[in-house]
Amino acid sequence: MPHMTPAETVFAELGIRPLARDLKLDPKTVFRWSEGDGLVPSKYHVKLLKLAKKRGRILTTDDLVMGRTVR
Q: Is residue 1 scored above 90 in pLDDT?
């Protein structure tokens, strides 16, 4: 089964530009999370979980560390 990296999972749930705006980061900075291993910096994990909850999106700690299997 296909697998999304943590960054791809976050982008699918929250979008790159809206996420960058909420985190007060340049969209290029956020997009760079997808380069290489696709890991999301841990300093953003709590903020991302709170944003997802606020927006009614599903994002888990496992998603932020392991990514998500696409079904």
A: no
